[in-house]
Prior knowledge:
By secondary structure, the protein is an alpha+beta fold. It folds into 2 domains: about 5-175, 2-Layer Sandwich (Ribosomal Protein S5, domain 2); about 175-315, Alpha-Beta Plaits (2-Layer Sandwich). The protein is built from 9 helices and 11 strands. It has helices at about 70-80, 110-125, 130-145, 155-160, 195-205, 210-230, 240-250, 255-270, 295-305, and strands at about 5-15, 25-40, 50-55, 60, 95-100, 165, 175, 180-185, 275, 285-290, 310-315. The strands form 2 sheets. Strands 1, 2, 3, 4, 5, 6 and 7 form a 7-stranded mixed sheet that branches. A 4-stranded antiparallel sheet has the order 9-10-8-11. The longest helix has 23 residues, at about 210-230. The radius of gyration is 20 Å and the shape is globular. It binds (R)-mevalonate. (R)-mevalonate binds near residues 107, 150 and 153. (R)-mevalonate binds near residues 17, 20, 150 and 154.
Amino acid sequence: MRATSSTAPGKIILFGEHAVVYGQPAIAVPVTHVRAEVRIEPTRGGDSARILAPGVGLDTRVEDLPLSHPLSVALRGVLSACGVAEPLSDIPPFTLTIHSTIPVAGGMGSGAAVSVAVIRAVSAFLGHPLPDEQVNALAYEVEKLHHGTPSGIDNTVITYARPVYFVRGQPIETFTVPTPFTIVIADTGVPSSTAITVGNVRKGWQADPDRFNPWFERVGQLVRAARHAIESGTPRTLGPLMDENHALLQQMGVSSPELDRLVEAARGAGALGAKLSGGGGGGNMIALVEAESAEKVAEALRNAGAVRTIVTEIG
Ligand code: MEV
C-alpha cells in the first residue's frame, strides 16, 4: 500500500439555507481558500491504524473511536464500500492525518469536507477509488450525525467542488458562472450549531406551518431568481435578493445580533447585498461586493467584530 492524500474545499450557501430542508432549491459554491487535507501513510511494523488531527488534539487508534464518532462512521462506510470486512482492527496498519483550515462550526462545511477527504483518501489507499456519487452518499451518512435532517447540500457541493443548484432528493445540478462576482465572507467568531438552528426551525414550522411555509416558498422564488441572474451574467442583481433572503432568515429566527451587525456593516460600507450563510445562530455571513470595494467592506466587517474575513471570486 502506498501513501495517498486527498483534499476537499469549504463551502458557502449563497441562497436558500433552511428552506432547502423543506424541499425548496438552494445554491451553494465551493470556497477553495480553505480546505481539509488528509494524508495516509502505511505504518511499517505498526500494529493498528491511527488517526491524528493535531488541530483538534485527536490522536487515537481507529478501533478506539466511539461508534457514533463522525470519523468512525466515515471509515466504516468507506471500508464496507471497498469490500473490507470488520473488525476495524483487521485493516492494514496506517496513519491517517487530518489538517483543516476550514473554521469549525462556522457554517463552511468543515465536517463534510473532512468526511469527503477521508473517504477519498481511504478508498484510494485501499486501491478502490470511489466515484463521486458514492463519496457523496457516504458523506451524507456522516452529515446525518450532525443533525437529523440534513438536506445533503453541504456534502454535495464539497464532493463535486462546483457551484450547485440543489433540490433535496433530485439529481445533482452543477452550473457555470459566466460573469464572475466577488463575495466577502466574514466570521462572527460565534460557534454555529446547525443541529440547534435546524431543530428550532422545525419546532417553529411544526407549531405554525401557515407562517413558515410562505417564507420557505418565497426563499425558493429568490433562489430561482438568483440562478437566473447568475446564469444570465447579471450577478449585481443578486444584492437585493440576498437582502430579502436575510430578512426571511431573520423571521425564521436563525439570525443573531452578531450576524445582523455584520450584515449592516457590510451594507454601510457599500456592499450590494448581504446575508447570513449556512445554519446561522453564529458562524459566517456573506456580502456581495464590487471587486474594487472588497477590501473596504472586509475592513468594515473586521471593525464591526468579524474575527476573520475571506474575499473570494465566484466563477
Ligand atoms: C447548512 O449548511 C444548511 C442548512 O440548510 C441545513 C441543511 O441544508 O442540511 C441550514
